[in-house]
Each structure stands twice: as structure tokens, then as C-alpha cells.
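Please check our next protein.
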Amino acid sequence: MRIAPVDAVRPSRSDSISRLIVFDLDGTLVDSAGDLASAVNEALFRHGLRRLGDARIVGFIGEGARRLVERSVRVADPDASSDRIDQVLETFSAHYGEHCLDQTGLYPGMLAAIDGLLREGARLGVLTNKPRRPAERILAGLGVRDRFDHLIAGDDLPTRKPDPGGLNLLLARTRCAPDEAVLVGDSVVDVETGRRARVPVVGVGWGPGSEAELRRAGACHIVDRVEDLVGLCALAGRCEPGEG
């Protein structure tokens, strides 16, 4: 785990763990890359488009289903119309809804980390650009939905990450100040969301996003091991967004 020395970060009002820990879903809590890539390729195939490599598709994850499908279609057919993208998106959504738990699972050690945060008195939430139906199904299917007080999904509000609306709503619901919260995510989108809401962001090293990208975007800390999340979240409130 790479972490700034304690005396190098700004002291907080309390040494206790942050009151609200908000997790991104894909690439942070769960490894869903295989199911997402499979669903995209199935949709491309059904509409007469060439399949893409999984790594290429995974690089498009993070800004919601439409952006994922749109980017994938544009690689397969640069001249695709908006109507064709809509058709592929519909096929993708239907297929993914039925197969979102085929390969998806919590990252190893994540359940213990979640329970460790709860024992420390943290309130947990999920903020994802994934639509609510598959997000709920994944969390419930993996047996962790009841551990999260709040879920804001990609179709709950008119805007999605990196717009800070969902994160601000979670702060309001929990009556939590920005410096009493931390957002845990694997992408530049997550870091930008936190920056706009003035919430410190912990970047994770096990998702598709790179450490260099997360640091450049302004993540307060980078954590490489799931089991270190509890300790790192306790420190996250002691730095300003953009430090690290």
C-alpha cells in the first residue's frame, strides 16, 4: 500500500474513521469486466458487427452503459448511426440483465473489508453509473446489498458521474460533510466526481484504471490491497481532494 506519511496530510477534526464511505461498483467493489465484455460482444455479433477484444471493451467501462456501447460500436463501425447504436444498446441491456452474474464477483477480500468498515462504525454507500436494475441484482446476488445503506445508480438522476449530483445527494441523505466522507473508485471519472463534490478520493489499484492516471487526476491516496481499505479510509479525511 502506498500512502502519504501521516504527518504529511492535513489533520482532521477527528482521528475516527470517515462517517460515510462511498464505493464505485465496477472495478472497485466487483470484478464485472468479463460479463460486460461478453454482453457487448454478444450485442455486436447479433447486429452484424465484429467482436472486439475484451481489453478494448474494458477500457470503455466507467461512464455508463450507453457510453460503453457507443464507444464499442464506433470501433466496430465508425459510421454507425445513432439508431444502430440504440439497437445495439437495447440488445446489450437485455443480455447483460440476464447474465450480469455469470462471471462477476466481489474482489478477493472485499467482504472482509466491508465488514471491517462496518465494525468501525462507517456508513456505506454505492455510487455507480450502472443502471439500478443490474446494480441491485449484482449486490443482492453477491449477498452484500444489506450492508449498504444507500445506492445511487446511473438511471436514478438526470446526470451521472463525473457530475457530483449523486455524491452530493448521498452527503445530504446522511447529513455528512464532504470532509467526513471518502469516495473509493478505480477511475479518473471517480476522482473527478470527488473533486467536484470536495470529497477526498481513494484510488484502488485492482481496477482497470492505472495508478498514474489516478494520481494525475488528484486521488488523495492509492491502495493496492483490498485488506488495506479500512486503514486507508481512516486517513482519507485528513487530506484535501487533489493531494497525494
Remarks:
- Residues 82-99 form the longest helix (18 residues).
- Residues 33-99 form a domain with the DNA polymerase; domain 1 fold (CATH 1.10.150.240).
- Residues 97 and 133 are 8 Å apart (CA to CA).
- Confidence is low (pLDDT under 50) at residues 1-15.
